[in-house]
Backbone:
């Protein structure tokens, strides 16, 4: 009986433990932190042995296979010891992929991947396919492989998940874009981050497809360097050589492998340039899977936006409040600002990941009337943006930030929470930050 050790007791770890149990393995789950009550009760109910607050080294190093949570870096001391002993370390997606022959639509990118994943899933589900949603969204892939049967999976993959994937194959691989992010994990070398993202193409054959944004210089440069047998399906705002999706005279045109179809751009449920790209990638994926164009069109028209991504919250005293808490890097905020059509008060701040704010400097000068900084330490933001906007305020809590925005805003303005930064200085997660923002906005309505 193979001994499976799972490191990390979150969604992916617990799913992997259950799949291991289903496959007759001896399973042990270990988490250096605390396991939430939700997952603890699942492990107890399933009869899976686990520990929290420690790693029992002897027990872990006795494993035949280790499945590691994507949040644990490869240089964590325990992972280094496991690797030194020659024990295979897999991601949950790699582990789950060994036990299913479902077709895989896999989506990665620095920005836009969650919306594209949910939109693609929405189209496939609406078209009547037996489809599961997994990766960074939905339920653990391993849990679904263990307990449900799907013919298709739409999977959002982070670079962290791709690190420990070896034999897994995407039937359709999508890279939305690549901009600097998580460089602290990759020795501050962009090429290491790019290489991790491009692992999504490994094992693809001439029967498979690679969808990508052809205006991304990093992606197009990497395509020149590597060899892939997959059929290339690039998309762009304007038609270029080989474009399989583009806009012409306000019409989005799609050139799928089996049919050509189109949809008026103003019929897309999702607005803004970044959402045009998300819609193109999702539409091409659906075309490849032979979903009829009327089904794709209908799904692109009625999809509801993702929470915390340019999510409309409320209008108070004529001021629109928009929650874009998911914008944890500069490029995400660039797309948010690009979509703004009214004078904007921008909330920035949080845990800086080595951000270069020059990327949004011109958009800030063009569209932003005031910046409200919100973080434990706002000095870098204050230094960069002072003198580039008429008003810049320094706050250290969501309550104070929203009050300051309400004070500065006039009817017709938009208050945009699009922080550019990770949330961990003041919040548990970007979701926590977004929820608290919405709560404070609702208080203004009383």
Residues:
């Amino acid at each position: 009986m193979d001994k499976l050790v799972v490191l990390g007791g979150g969604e992916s770890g617990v799913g992997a433990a259950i799949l291991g149990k289903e496959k007759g393995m001896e399973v042990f789950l270990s988490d250096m932190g605390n396991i939430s009550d939700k997952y603890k009760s699942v492990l107890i109910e399933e009869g899976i042995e686990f520990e929290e607050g420690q790693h029992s080294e002897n027990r872990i190093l006795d494993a035949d296979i280790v499945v590691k949570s994507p949040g644990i870096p490869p240089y964590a001391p325990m992972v280094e010891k496991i690797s030194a002993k020659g024990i295979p370390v897999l991601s949950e997606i790699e582990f789950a992929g060994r036990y299913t022959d479902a077709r895989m639509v896999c989506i990665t990118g620095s920005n836009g991947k969650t919306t594209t994943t949910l939109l693609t899933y929405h189209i496939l589900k609406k078209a009547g396919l037996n489809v599961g949603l997994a990766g960074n969204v939905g339920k653990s892939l391993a849990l679904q492989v263990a307990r449900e049967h799907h013919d298709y999976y739409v999977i959002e993959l982070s670079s962290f998940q791709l690190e420990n994937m070896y034999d897994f194959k995407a039937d359709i691989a999508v890279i939305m874009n690549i901009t600097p992010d998580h460089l602290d994990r990759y020795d501050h070398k962009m090429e290491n981050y790019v290489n991790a993202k491009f692992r999504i193409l490994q094992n693809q054959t001439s029967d498979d497809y690679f969808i990508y944004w052809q205006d991304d210089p990093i992606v197009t440069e990497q395509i020149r360097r590597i060899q892939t047998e997959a059929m290339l399906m690039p998309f762009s705002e304007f038609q270029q050589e080989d474009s399989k999706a583009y806009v012409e005279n306000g019409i989005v045109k799609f050139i799928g492998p089996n049919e050509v179809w189109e949809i008026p751009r103003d019929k897309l449920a999702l607005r803004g340039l970044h959402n045009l790209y998300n819609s193109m990638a999702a539409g091409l994926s659906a075309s490849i899977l032979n979903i009829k164009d009327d089904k794709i069109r209908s799904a692109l028209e009625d999809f509801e936006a993702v929470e915390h991504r340019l999510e409309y919250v409320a209008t108070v005293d004529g001021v629109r409040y928009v929650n874009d808490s998911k914008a944890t890097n500069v490029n995400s905020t660039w797309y948010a600002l690009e979509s703004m059509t009214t004078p904007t008060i921008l909330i920035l701040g949080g845990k800086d990941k080595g951000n270069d704010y020059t990327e949004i400097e011109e958009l800030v000068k063009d569209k932003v009337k005031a910046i409200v900084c919100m973080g434990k330490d706002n000095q870098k933001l204050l230094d960069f943006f002072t003198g580039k906007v008429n008003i810049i305020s320094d706050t250290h809590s969501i309550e104070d930030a929203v009050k300051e925005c309400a004070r500065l805003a006039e009817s017709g303005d938009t208050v945009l929470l699009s922080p550019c930064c990770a949330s961990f200085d003041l919040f548990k997660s970007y979701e926590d930050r977004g929820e608290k923002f919405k709560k404070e906005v609702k208080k203004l309505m009383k």
Observations:
- The mean pLDDT is 92.
- The first strand starts at residue 3 and ends at 7.
- The CA atoms of residues 330 and 420 lie 5 Å apart.
